[in-house]
Amino acid sequence: MTPDRLAALVDVGLLAQALLGALAVLFAVVVPRRVRNAASGSALVAVGVAGAITGVAALLGAPAAGLRIPLALPLAGPMDPMLLAPDRLGAVFMAIAGMVVALSALFGIGYAHGAAASRTGWTAFAVFAVGLQFVPAAADAVTFLLAWELMAGGSTVLLLADHAVREPVRRATLWYAVMTHLSFLLLLTGFGILAAAAGGTSWATMAGAGLGGPVAGVAFVLLTAGFATKAGLVPVHVWLPRAHPEAPSHMSAAMSAAMVKMGVYGIMMVVLRLLPEGPRWWAVLLIALGAGSALYGILQASVQSDLKRLLAYSTTENVGLVVAAVGIGVLLRDSGQDGVAGVAFLAALLLAVSHAAFKTVLFLGAGSVLHATGERDLDLLGGLASRMPWTATAFGIGAMGAAALPVTSGFVAEWALLQALVHADARADRLVAVVMPVTMAVVALTVGLGLLTFVKALGIGFLARPRTRAAADAHEAGITMRAALAVGSLLVLALGLAPGPVSVALAGAVPAGGVSTVAGTGLVLDAVGVVLHPVGLTLLLLAILVPLVVVNVVLARRHPRRDVGLAWGSGGERTSPRMEYNATSYAEPLVRVFGSSLQATRSVEVVRHEQSPLLVSQVAFTQETVDVVEERIYLPAARRAERFGDLARTVQNGSIHRYVGFSFAALVVVLVVLALW
Amino acid sequence: MSDHLYEQLLATTTGLLLLTAVLQVWGRSVTRAIRLLAIQGLALAGLVLVVGLHGGERQAPPVALLVLLVKAVAMPWAMARSARLIDQTKEAGSLANPAVELIGAAGLTLLAYAISGPLLGGQADPAAQAAPVGFSLVLLGFWQLLIRRSALTQLVAFLLIDNGIATIAFLTSGGLPLTIELGVSLDVLLVVLILGVLVVRMHEEQGHIDITELRELRD
């Protein structure tokens, strides 16, 4: 298709998303309960697909005219018209959002139950999905913030789905609502400063004003703080490990894989589009934020035993890597190494796309497990691989992606990031010489811990023998859930095996030159002179592995397996599920190594036998890790706010006379002030 | 109408307004407060008529008639009916003693005179010069809201504030158009009717109409 045809497709696609979203809401409200999941879910799958197609079209085509929002807001000051017209960077994130929404909605058709399958539930999902897909399409601050609030509002309502059943849901929603509003306020202030300084609300006006100096600095800090809150970066990540586990799983997937990305999009938009001439300390701030989040996130993830909480912390890690990559790009661009900077920006996008793919699969897999067993505590699972082969395979592929192993998207993305780090020329620039090795060390440590974390998640959850009745009775997920898992895993593998075409398309969205493809699938980075050809590597690996496997199988046939009984087992089993490694014991060495930053508290309770203190009847071990940031920063702040609230309570006591007195005093004071003026 | 007569009539009506307001603060009888309210309505209607006729407005007589009907007849009647239904003719008690009440009222009247000069600017028009009376009425109304406990007296105080605002409007802008005055008056009448019913219900439910007892906070 020609670029102009693609641009027309973008315009149609934007309209289609809005209309299909309205259709999903309509279905959610009018269709009877029996078919509501199917009707509303299918409409949302269509919304997602439309978003993905629009995103891809906008990425490859000419700039589209966009969709005007005919809405007159009574705002004073310079206001550009409200417009939805994605640029290439926005297009990437719109495609990500669309893909994730489509998969989560498809999964939700089979998965949604209870309040998540109610009218409110599906309506909230539809509002959330449309808001989410329109955030990166917005071409001005007002539209952006409008879509942003649709996204925040819809997700808050859906997060509340199980509030009647589980108490933690209410607390998680409260945390989420507070943090998301904080984020909105920061963004509003930041964009307000930019709009006032540039004399217009559209991105084009802001970018064209060439802002710099302290105004740009203040706006950058505010916007970065606001976007970081949405992206779940440390220290504003606290809502993430609470909200993701408590939300319905298809919603967790959408929130973690797509919504969090909007924070990343915001940061990239600010440093690449709105304020491209930023000073170096911006880059250092971004790298510090990103690398810190990556390390802290994976460290917390590695010791969690709640599967969804683990995934939530891993989101903080991945987003941290993306933001660190952006920071590295900005730093290198500033020191004049545009080629390597481009690789870093490309790595950021690859990391974002890859994380969206594998985190969707992982959260949907966790949802499938939760659906089948009612459990998300790894210590109570096990043995699911034979009972849920589809889910286990998909989760395995997702876990490989998260652990950045070859043939998956995660490997490609982290490989690109390391290329940027390795090839940065540190000879001329002291700051680069300091920052690059430190970042590289952090990334290496993160990758290592990530591997451990996902070996744990997959191994403890899906392999070995079931540790509880619920795990033993697990059943495979329904057809739509399996379909969503399969498509997601295929995306993870596709990006891992054919990174070339995707990277070439992505490179158009950021200032990255010299990206090309070789042999149809391979990736060539001319700027740093490296080639990655996963298909070739895989074939090579297979050439080595296949004879090995064949020899093994043949030998095994020749010598049939013998059952070896326990010598002194008295007919007992070799191992019982209680003797297996579980999530807590697997992470035990890590807790010892990183004890001070994790602040784990353990208690061992020994119950002695009534007759003799020498006989032990029961031993219970519990271990809890604390989120240090939450403990040290948020709880004291919350306590202080509460004390302030108590002060206010002494002022208002319910007496009508007192309230009238306040108004009266205010009136008299105003009159006196006016008279004296 | 000669200027001298105009000033005399203006002084009479506004003086009557202020006098009734102060008497309302002073007394403890609910029935007397309602009667004073009727007189106040009469004075307000007279004020409207005087200002309107002097300004040569043809709408003045109907507006004055409306004010008379609503403020001097309908509202006092509705309130007197509520008071009769629940048999409350005496104020239960005040939060301040009579001396404090009157000193406060005097202080607020002084304040009204002190602030209305700078607020309205030095206008030579005798009507504008009488505007402090309106401010006094508003402040005295608030003062009654603060110190009285009975719900009926609260209602009287609320109407006193309304009368004050109406007085300021008539004195400074030469009156309001008939339609606007109609709307405002009927709104206030509606509020009085509803609150009158509410007071009766409150008495039925709780056996008293003391609003200091209503202090339980609800979410």
From TrEMBL, chain A:
It is a multi-pass membrane protein. GO terms for cellular component: plasma membrane. This is Formate hydrogenlyase subunit 3/Multisubunit Na+/H+ antiporter, MnhD subunit. Keywords: Cell membrane, Lyase, Membrane, Oxidoreductase, Transmembrane, Transmembrane helix. It comes from Raineyella antarctica. Residues 138-426 form the NADH:quinone oxidoreductase/Mrp antiporter transmembrane domain. The chain crosses the membrane at residues 6-31, 43-69, 89-109, 121-139, 173-198, 218-240, 252-275, 281-299, 311-332, 344-370, 390-411, 431-464, 485-510, 530-555, 659-676. The lineage of its organism: Bacteria, Bacillati, Actinomycetota, Actinomycetes, Propionibacteriales. Signal peptide: none annotated. It is found in: Cell membrane; Membrane. GO terms for molecular function: lyase activity; oxidoreductase activity. InterPro entries: ComplexI-like_HydComp, ND/Mrp_TM. Pfam families: Proton_antipo_M (PF00361). Coiled coil: none annotated.
UniProtKB/TrEMBL annotation, chain B:
One of its GO terms (cellular component) is plasma membrane. This is Hydrogenase-4 component E. Keywords: Cell membrane, Membrane, Transmembrane, Transmembrane helix. The keyword Cell membrane applies. It is a multi-pass membrane protein. It comes from the Bacteria. The chain crosses the membrane at residues 6-26, 33-54, 60-80, 92-115, 127-146, 155-176, 182-200. It is found in: Cell membrane.
